[in-house]
Design a protein that fits this description.
heterotetramer, A: 292 residues, alpha+beta, Immunoglobulin-like, 5-stranded mixed sheet, 4 helices, C: 597 residues, mainly alpha, Cytochrome C Oxidase, Chain A, two-stranded antiparallel sheet, 61% helix, 1% strand
């Protein structure tokens, strides 16, 4: 029994690897669900399509880290497996009580530490600084995102590029979901939609708010995620690549209640013409609703 | 399933008997009338609702807070609840047993007014291919809040409200979706429809205070005397500024 | 040392021996002996059995949730029709999913793993390893258990109140946790239960530290302590100092829910179109800071005792001293210390500024190094060893690569930039489950197989144990490995149904694979359950030291009597003197007098 | 006795120079420091982050209606009770159980005075004036912090009363053990006073 244990162990490890790989490769989507709009982009068991100009920095760090992790794990695993086989208990074999001087381990630990420092100071802190402080100055679009249980509202400032004041006391979910004030001149040309429209290749500054609980504004294809925290206004920014027009998904990444799973919105990356047409449609004075 | 059904039938039978016992056949008094609108109809146009939050909500829908029946003459108001407010004394009425069906269809509530008796079952159905979350916001009754992720026009979920009060209902996934629940202790209530009329039937003769309730225009009361065998008529006129 | 003749089975607490220091020792009633016992061994076993039940219960919750994830909104087979009030139409409603999710987390962490590691193993093994007759405060020890029990009952009862159990995740982020289920008891009972559990852990940690400081046997200096005791020592400090802030946070949230205060509520909250009556002026992030100030040390509470157990088992089954014992001790102390200043790496996405993020990312990178050191030391111990592949050793060995995966995948989450994409996705779930499930839970299994003969005087069956190990090892990976890929794909955690998203739908196949892995993992526990109960009564009887180990607990009879040792032990050497030259046997127990190595 | 015989319950450990109970109570107090520390940190954060105007703004000192005279009186009461607690322990050290009990009883009496003053002159008038915990965050913190402190006082009263009553039986069998227990209770009691000495300026004077 004892003598064959290590073989069982190896077989198990091998089996796991094979099983894991085949399953990942064979993991296919179930029948697509009708969500009203066809979503562009490619999605699978790895990072999804990236349509953001700066998204590659996130991807690069994730990729570098994974190569490093897999390398370390494989190297370390080989040593582990070697020890398990070579030093298994068997007749005539006795443990060596003298502890080895494992200089390589010290070097390995130092190498790991240095590598982590490089990741930290080379790939993380500067990028984070860019994300947090280098807001675009090239006349970005400005949009305010207001999260609520369980929907996203997109508040556009209109031609004057100024947001009107919001007053939570006058919120009317049918006619005035954000509580926009009529007497605020800055808010005269504002408009609100349930769809997020941006222009391709143009930078966007998004101010994130929440009406009730903590939500998280997550656009996988943009590598953008930011919690929406009630009582706070948190600005973020991104810029889409050229020629990425299409529809993409926005999700909520922070548990926000019963229907957290269905708190989804669609981001339309438009050409300038499409965008202008949409704005015209949304801002047109409402006609009276007539039932057929 | 079988068993529940059998019990249901039994209960319904018993309830009918009870009803017959309490409300005698002679109670055939009727109050009828219409709810009239007076004022500037342009101020109360229905506006289209922005349903862009969910691409599954394809059918255009309009606001419901004020729906005027412009084809009738005079112009009447839809979705006004007319009910007996006073005059029934301490009489107890057995609850209606047939469930009130509330369907979520095209991302709006059908019907918009849920007028039910205490303990009358309300059956909530989902007629859309999207997730709905119905959220009742009562003051006295217990708050109910649950989602119906799938189209389901048969089973649904049944609820009962125990205490008399009007309160709002909304959908937490489609914030624009709203409706009103009115719970009564008695069966004498009616909701105006496309013709703006109402009829309260089966009343014992006597003096009553009748109330008309509208979600936007508020309430209005009137004294009505019901005599046996002759329908009493009473119109309500709302004159919003 | 004379062979101790063990009589009778059951839980194995016979008192047919003559102990020479049990002054005033007389037969106790059944209740005082087994239920309201003050003996650390009985309390340890009580903790262990209760925690195993909770682990099983928490795992069952998850297996039901996995159905909803794999086959959204389809009726759950068998269970759906058994509990129609929980599952209307046989399927799991999203609010029920949230309740199960919150309770799965809470139960596994606070009612399962911590009581198992600290309450059960700590209580049972630690006093034996330091040669103490009992814990320093036996009555306090009993109280810890019963307070823990009350907390557990409160948590379980919350499933049956109107509105169901808490639904805001095990993290209970305000304001969600304050505004959900208004006027209902679910979340309030969660908070009350937490106050119980925290109190229990606090009392326990005071007891542990005092015991380790005061009651070590003669000659047992701090650097002769087995590594497990060191792990318990550091863990107790974490519990002692990290839990009170959560208790404070719990009290504040309780006030918000019950008294209408606004500690975590900002001004102008509009829920479901209704203006809220809270005065405002509070801060939702305050909860997160207080919570994670506890919960990050808590992560180390979950892993350090597991490391300690694995170290014990590896030393015993490699027939070799631990490589770098002192380095490991320093590392574990450093880990404990550092764990207090990394908490905000859970909050990068809350809008944290550059300086804070840089600080917490740096401390997070630093804290990874002692973990690497400990892991490396354990692997190097294998070099030049003579490895016995018995069941405890298999689990302990499997702990190493599994914990390595869990630890390594923590790196992308500790750097704010990669955390943008991976935060709150399945990647996080995969990461900490690799640490806690194949990591800590495997260590727990290893510990059960290893110390079972000490507690009962009987061995567990090796063949069944191996079946249990192989199946568990395969399926735990099938269950958790797909989560990394789902996370990379961008699937958020805590979604009752991910197929509504295109990126979620694309990896639904992986979700199903993970679910099947989880159910198979559940089935794989059957051999263990059989083995556990049958071996208790019919296992092979063994002497006091079946593994031929060196630490003190193996010098006590199996099971140890009241007062633990036949004669007060005296320690002569370090904890892992295996294969000492000049000694006939390949181990040299700590208590045995003789030439110093 | 159902417990195993443990060393260092009475005599101090040769290295730590503490008996187990004393080490235990110090550890307990360390955790209490963390508990109140977290609450004081919350106080600081909420006060610094409070809105400048509106109903949620931090009230000016005069608006709180807290009287430093009542607070000061209670501070004095607690300080004296700490002294009597020490005197009780000193009396036990000189083997005078009668005097020790008298001092313990004085401590309990002073603690009750504290609670009664707190309840009748502060809590009830505040709530009647509409200054409930939900009024604003100042009162929320005021009630939470002083309420938790009052719970600690009540806990102390129960323990000390136990030592005056049934707990004192231990004096006959093991006087030193009993003295140690009173000493530990004293340490706890001083800590509770200390918390009040922090609470008093934070709530009443600023």
């Amino acid at each position: 029994m004892r003598r064959c244990s290590w073989r069982i162990f190896l077989a198990v490890v091998f089996g796991c690897v094979v099983l894991g790989q085949t399953s990942v490769l064979r993991a296919q989507a179930v029948a697509p669900k009708d969500t009203g709009v066809k979503i562009d982009g490619e999605y699978g068991p790895f990072l999804p399509t990236d349509i953001s100009v700066d998204g590659y920095q996130v991807d690069r760090l994730i990729n570098v880290l994974h190569v490093f992790m897999i390398g370390l794990f494989v190297g370390w695993g080989l040593f582990f497996a070697f020890c398990l086989v070579k030093y298994r208990q068997r007749p005539g074999h006795r443990a060596n009580s003298v502890l080895i001087k494992a200089k390589p381990s010290k070097y390995l630990e130092i190498a790991v530490a240095i590598f982590e420092a490089v990741l930290l100071f080379g790939f993380s802190i500067p990028v984070w600084a860019r994300v947090k402080s280098e807001f675009p100055t090239d006349d970005p679009m400005r949009v305010r995102v207001v999260a609520e249980q369980f929907a996203w509202n997109f508040h556009y400032p209109g031609a004057d590029k100024k947001f009107g004041k919001l007053n939570p006391k006058i919120i009317d979910l049918v006619k005035n979901p954000l509580g926009r004030m009529d007497d605020d001149p800055a808010g005269k040309d504002d408009f609100v939609s349930g769809e997020f429209h941006v222009i391709e290749g143009r930078s966007v500054v998004v101010e994130i708010l929440s009406k009730d609980v903590i939500h998280s504004f997550f656009v996988p294809v943009l590598r953008v995620k930011q919690d929406a925290i009630p009582g706070m206004r948190i600005p973020i920014w991104f810029k889409t690549k050229e020629k990425t027009a299409g529809a993409y998904e926005i999700g909520c990444a922070q548990l926000c209640g019963n229907n957290h799973f269905s708190m989804r919105a669609v981001m339309h990356v438009d050409t300038p013409e499409q965008y202008a047409a949409w704005v015209k449609k949304v801002t047109a004075p409402p006609e009276e609703f007539k039932e057929d | 399933m079988q068993k529940t059904f059998r019990y249901g039938v039994l209960c319904a039978f018993a309830a009918t008997l009870g009803l017959a016992g309490v409300v005698r056949a002679a109670d055939d008094g009727v109050i009828k009338g219409k709810v009239i609108f007076k004022g500037d109809t342009d101020k109360f146009k229905r506006s289209p609702i922005d349903t862009s939050k969910d691409a599954n909500c394809k059918k255009p829908i309009g606001s419901w807070d004020v729906i005027l029946n412009k084809k009738t003459d005079p112009i009447t108001i839809k979705n006004v609840v007319v009910s007996i407010k006073e005059g029934l004394g301490d009489k107890k009425f057995p609850p209606k047993t047939e469930p009130f069906k509330l369907t979520q269809k095209d991302c709006q509530y059908d019907p918009h007014i849920i007028a039910v008796m205490e303990d009358q079952p309300v059956k909530i159905l989902n007629g859309d291919d999207t997730n709905h979350n119905i959220h009742f916001l009562p003051k006295k009754n217990t708050e109910e809040n649950f989602s119906q992720p799938q189209k389901d026009e048969v089973t649904g979920k049944e609820l009962k409200f125990k205490l008399e009060e009007p309160f709002k209902v909304k959908c937490d996934v489609h914030p624009w979706m709203g409706a009103h629940v009115l719970v009564f202790t008695h069966p004498y209530f009616a909701v105006t429809g496309d013709d703006g009329t109402f009829e309260l039937k089966g009343l014992p003769p006597g003096k009553y205070v009748v109330e008309a309730w509208h979600e936007k225009f508020g309430t209005m009361k009137a004294d009505v005397e019901v005599a046996a065998g002759k329908p009493a008529e009473k119109d309500f006129t709302f004159e919003p500024k | 040392m004379a062979q101790h003749q063990h009589k009778g089975g059951g839980h194995g607490h016979d008192h047919h021996h003559h102990d020479d220091h049990g002054a005033g020792h007389h037969e106790l009633s059944y209740w005082r002996k087994y239920i309201f016992s003050v003996d650390h061994k009985i309390i340890g076993i009580q903790y262990g059995l209760t925690a195993l039940c909770f682990l099983f219960f928490g795992f069952s919750l998850m297996m039901i949730m996995r159905w909803q994830l794999a086959y959204p909104n389809k009726p759950i087979p068998v269970i759906g029709s058994l509990f129609p009030s929980f599952f209307p139409g046989g399927a799991m409603a999203p609010e029920m999913y949230n309740a199960f999710g919150a309770m799965h987390g809470t139960i596994m962490v606070f009612l399962g793993v911590v009581p198992m590691l600290v309450g059960a193993f700590g209580n049972y093994v630690m006093p034996l390893q330091i040669g103490a007759p009992d814990m320093a405060f036996p009555k306090l020890n009993m109280m810890s258990y019963w307070v823990y029990f009350c907390g557990g009952v409160t948590m379980l009862a919350s499933f049956f109140v109107k509105g169901g159990a808490a639904q805001s995740g095990w993290t209970s982020y305000a304001p969600l946790s304050v505004i959900t289920q208004p006027h209902q008891w679910g979340q309030t009972m969660w908070l009350i239960g937490m106050v119980f559990l925290i109190t229990s852990s606090l009392l326990g940690s005071i007891n542990f530290i005092t015991t380790i400081v005061q009651l070590r046997a003669k000659g047992l200096t701090m650097f002769r302590l087995p590594f497990f005791v060191w792990a318990q020592f550091v863990t107790s400090f974490l519990l002692l100092l990290a839990f009170p802030p959560l208790e404070a946070a719990g009290i504040l949230q309780l006030m918000d829910r019950v008294a209408g205060t606004s500690f975590f509520m900002p001004e102008g909250l509009v829920v479901s179109g209704q203006m809220q009556s809270y005065t405002g002026g509070g801060n939702p992030l305050l909860w997160q800071h207080l919570f994670w100030f506890l919960a990050h040390p808590e992560v180390y509470v979950l892993i350090l005792p597991a490391m300690g157990m694995v170290a014990e088992i590896i030393a015993s089954n490699t027939r070799k001293a631990l490589w770098g014992y002192r380095t490991m001790v320093y590392s574990i102390i450093f880990l404990g210390f550092m764990s207090f200043i990394v908490w905000a790496h859970h909050m990068f996405i809350t809008g944290m500024g550059q300086k804070m993020a840089a600080f917490f990312a740096t401390t997070t990178m630093i804290i990874s190094i002692p973990s690497v050191v400990i892991l490396t030391a354990m692997v190097i111990t294998l070099h030049g060893a003579s490895i016995r592949f018995n069941v405890p050793m298999l689990f302990a060995l499997a702990f190493l690569p599994m914990f390595a995966i869990g630890g390594l995948t923590g790196l992308p989450l500790g750097l704010p930039v990669s955390d943008i994409q991976l935060h709150d996705t399945y990647y996080v779930i995969g990461h900490f489950h690799y640490v806690v499930a194949p990591g800590t839970i495997f260590a727990i299994f290893a510990g059960i197989y290893f110390w079972f003969p000490k507690a009962t005087g009987r061995m567990m069956n090796e063949a069944l144990g191996k079946v249990h190990f192989v199946l568990s090892f395969i399926f735990i990976n099938v269950a958790f490995m797909p989560m990394f890929f789902q996370g990379l794909a961008g699937v958020s955690r805590r979604l009752a149904d991910q197929t509504g998203y295109a990126h979620g739908n694309a990896v639904q196949g992986l979700t199903r694979m993970s679910s099947w892995g989880a159910w198979m993992l559940g089935l794989s526990q059957v051999p263990f359950i059989i083995n556990f109960f049958v071996s208790m009564f019919a296992g092979r009887k063994v002497s006091e030291n079946p593994w031929e180990s060196t630490t003190l607990e193996w010098s006590a009879p199996s099971p140890p009597p009241h007062g633990n040792f036949k004669s007060t032990p005296v320690v002569h050497r370090g904890p892992y003197e295996y294969g000492v030259p000049g000694i006939a046997k390949d181990y040299f127990p700590q208590h045995q007098a003789g030439a110093e190595a | 006795m159902s417990t195993a015989v443990l060393p260092y319950t009475v005599e101090p450990h040769p290295i730590t120079r503490l008996y187990s109970g004393k080490l235990g109570i110090w550890l307990f107090l360390a955790s209490e420091v963390m508990l109140f520390g977290a609450l004081f940190s919350s106080y600081v954060l909420l006060r610094v982050g409070a809105p400048v105007a509106g109903p949620a703004a931090w009230p000016a000192h005069a608006e709180t209606g807290l009287s430093w005279k009542i607070g000061g009186f209670n501070t004095l009461v607690l300080i004296i009770s700490s002294v009597t607690m020490v005197m009780a322990w000193a009396a036990l050290k000189t083997h005078n159980i009668g005097r020790a009990k008298a001092y313990l009883a004085t401590t309990v009496f002073l603690a009750l005075v504290f609670i009664v003053v707190k309840l009748t002159l502060e809590y009830i008038p505040k709530i009647q004036a509409g200054h409930t915990p939900s009024h604003n965050n100042f009162f929320a913190l005021y009630f939470t912090l002083t309420g938790l402190h009052a719970l600690h006082i009540i806990g102390g009263i129960i323990v000390i009363t136990y030592f005056i009553g049934p707990g004192s039986a231990l004096w006959k069998t093991d006087p030193e053990y009993f003295t140690n227990r009173v000493e530990c209770t004293g340490l706890y009691w001083h800590f509770v006073d200390l918390v009040w000495i922090f609470l008093f300026p934070v709530l009443y004077l600023t």
